[in-house]
Specification:
Layout (H helix, E strand, L loop, with lengths): L5 H9 L5 H21 L2 H18 L10 H17 L2 H9 L2 H13 L4 H11 L3 H12 L4 H8 L3 H19 L1
Helix pairs in contact: 2-3, 2-4, 3-4, 8-10, 9-10
């Protein structure tokens, strides 16, 4: 059952077959953890958020629309949004202050040893092919959790430029993935 197609997987979640969530976890957890960790920088927070993401997938599957995005893209968006929201909380900010340098190095080393879902690396490889001006914006917005306004400030460019670059980058990536 672990080689279940994505369509069947989605159907079973919609039918409230809880046994399928183990397959979702096995198939996507490492990729989602990578996205979450890239934004939070905290192993503990990332582990907690991953569980929240899995619960959200279960609870919100009715809102998933295959005509708007692929399932993987939808769950990555959930992970990204939860991660960004967590960065805004006081508890997260306090945790970041107490995390030691050695702990961060250890977490990064552990992540390097794990093999992430190949679909995640395909997306990363496509992103890496983007022109530098698009790559900067995509990395800040989607991999580091910056808002569009924060990205504009960090890159010292107008907000409208950030919006047009991300639009163009997403068009390019959509062509790659089609």
């Amino acid at each position: 059952m672990s080689q279940i197609s994505e369509d069947i997987l989605i159907k079973k979640i919609r039918e409230r077959d809880s046994s399928v969530m183990e397959i979702v976890y096995q198939k996507y957890a490492l990729s989602l953890f990578g996205v979450i960790y890239n934004i939070t920088g905290s192993k503990e927070s990332s582990e907690e958020l991953l569980q929240e993401v899995m619960l959200t997938i279960w609870q919100k599957i009715g809102t998933y629309d295959a005509n708007k995005s692929r399932f993987y893209t939808w769950i990555v968006r959930i992970a990204r949004n939860k991660s960004i929201d967590s960065r805004k909380t006081r508890a997260f900010k306090n945790e970041q202050k107490t995390q030691t340098h050695e702990n961060i190095v250890s977490i990064v080393d552990n992540l390097k040893d794990n093999s992430f879902d190949s679909e995640y690396f395909d997306i990363v490889s496509f992103v890496e092919e983007l022109n530098t001006k698009y790559l900067q914006v995509v990395k800040l917005l989607y991999f580091e959790g910056y808002s569009q306004a924060e990205t504009a400030d960090k890159l010292d460019i107008p907000l409208g430029t950030v919006k047009s670059r991300i639009r163009k980058a997403l068009e390019i990536l959509k062509k790659y993935l089609s």
